[in-house]
């Protein structure tokens, strides 16, 4: 009987192949539908004050400890965003909002609707990185309905990080670039507010409601 041939294991295993993502036209259209709402926006960054609470007692109790924070600055007017919205709706065969007053009444609550299994998570992550590239927005909060979807979002970040890093020439790292909200770590929330680097916070709605209540 012939003995099975054996070969020594290589000293190093071959590197894992990089995942390739095929760009789908409908996904790019979905990204553009949101990004184009801010057409005319310039690359901006705005400072704001974070009030940490009262400091001291007596006459000093009214003093507030302020710390510099950095947020997304929208420099175009509501009217310009409304005009952009109508253009986006018309090119996607959606009946546009009839009056600017209706838009102002409901505020800037926009929805890009996609079917299940069409790459919604990929689309909103790509939207984030496109907003950074085009307008300089750096602060984002992703709110998901459950812990399971939160974990799925984290997994998508992991498998798309190299793809988006290469495409948008940006560093994407867990905990420093994106992180899960934890009310027991207030220092991380302060870092989110004060950093001038890309910050993406992921939170499930139950965790948010628990802290509010």
From TrEMBL:
This protein's superkingdom?
A: Bacteria
The record, for Gene3D superfamilies, names: P-loop containing nucleotide triphosphate hydrolases
Domain named Helicase/UvrB N-terminal is located at 95-212
Q: Which UniProt keywords apply?
A: ATP-binding, Helicase, Hydrolase, Nucleotide-binding
Report the GO molecular function annotations: ATP binding; DNA binding; helicase activity; hydrolase activity
Q: Say if the entry is tagged with keyword Endoplasmic reticulum.
A: no
Q: Which Pfam families match?
A: ResIII (PF04851)
Q: What is this protein called?
A: DEAD/DEAH box helicase family protein
